[in-house]
Amino acid sequence: QRVTLGGGVAAEAKEQRIWLGQPVCLPADLDHVDEDAKPFLMGRPDSTFTLLAVTVSFAHDEDNPFKSAWVDITLRRQSPPDMPEPLAWSMVPFDDSDPVNVTKKAVFNGSLKLKNPALGLNVGPSIKRENDRTYTQRAVSVEALREGESTPRWQFSETDVSPIRGTHRLTLIVDTARGAFGQAEISVGATIW
């Protein structure tokens, strides 16, 4: 699914620029999840866990770069009907960013002048002070959103440093109530300006 917002190019391009790989679902081995998530997941004895992995690839075009892109996953309970919806946990990547160096310059110019139009003089002190501040800021290029819900999303953003391009591996742990069955619907979209 491709979407164009704003006054940009048409959504249908001559050549496909986004590919969604075949999803893989495997029983999750909780011994191999990140250390922060392990106590939380192991503390849910009424749940079963599945690793869901998918790849998405973006072909870069200098003339029509992607400004933003997303991968949406909708988790649904299939049966039994009285069980809660599946939830997404341990989304990887959680976030990724590019360092951007920023320099800001402030100029303070304070002056007190006494003008005498008859003499054509300006008399008084004048002070000028400049202050430079340099720091590194994070330009987020991909981030996981809505973890702990049935509708997780990875949001990709073009930055001053990096366009949206290449192949990205996305994984999450699906938490399903023990004895329930679920399904995942995966969609991808992008904005081109």
Overview of the structural elements:
The chain has one helix spanning about 40, and strands at about 20, 25, 45-60, 65-80, 85-90, 95-110, 115, 120-125, 125-145, 155, 165-175, 180-190. Helices cover about 5% and strands about 60% of the residues. It is an all-beta fold and about 190 residues long. Strand 7 and strand 8 form a beta hairpin. The longest helix is centred in the first third of the chain and has 5 residues, at about 40. Strands 1, 2, 3, 5 and 11 form a five-stranded antiparallel β-sheet that branches.
Pairing-aware structural class of the strands and helices? mainly beta
The dominant shape is elongated
Tally of DSSP helical segments: 1
Mean pLDDT: 82
Cα distance, first to last residue? 17 Å
Largest sheet: 5 strands, antiparallel
List the helices and strands and how they pair.
Layout: E1 18-20, E2 24-27, H1 38-42, E3 47-58, E4 66-79, E5 87-92, E6 95-111, E7 114-116, E8 121-123, E9 126-145, E10 153-157, E11 166-177, E12 181-192
Antiparallel strand pairs: 1-3, 2-3, 3-11, 4-10, 4-12, 5-11, 6-9, 7-8, 9-10
Summed up:
The chain has 193 residues and is mainly beta. It contains one helix and twelve strands, in the order ββαββββββββββ. It has one helix at residues 38-42; strands at 18-20, 24-27, 47-58, 66-79, 87-92, 95-111, 114-116, 121-123, 126-145, 153-157, 166-177, 181-192.
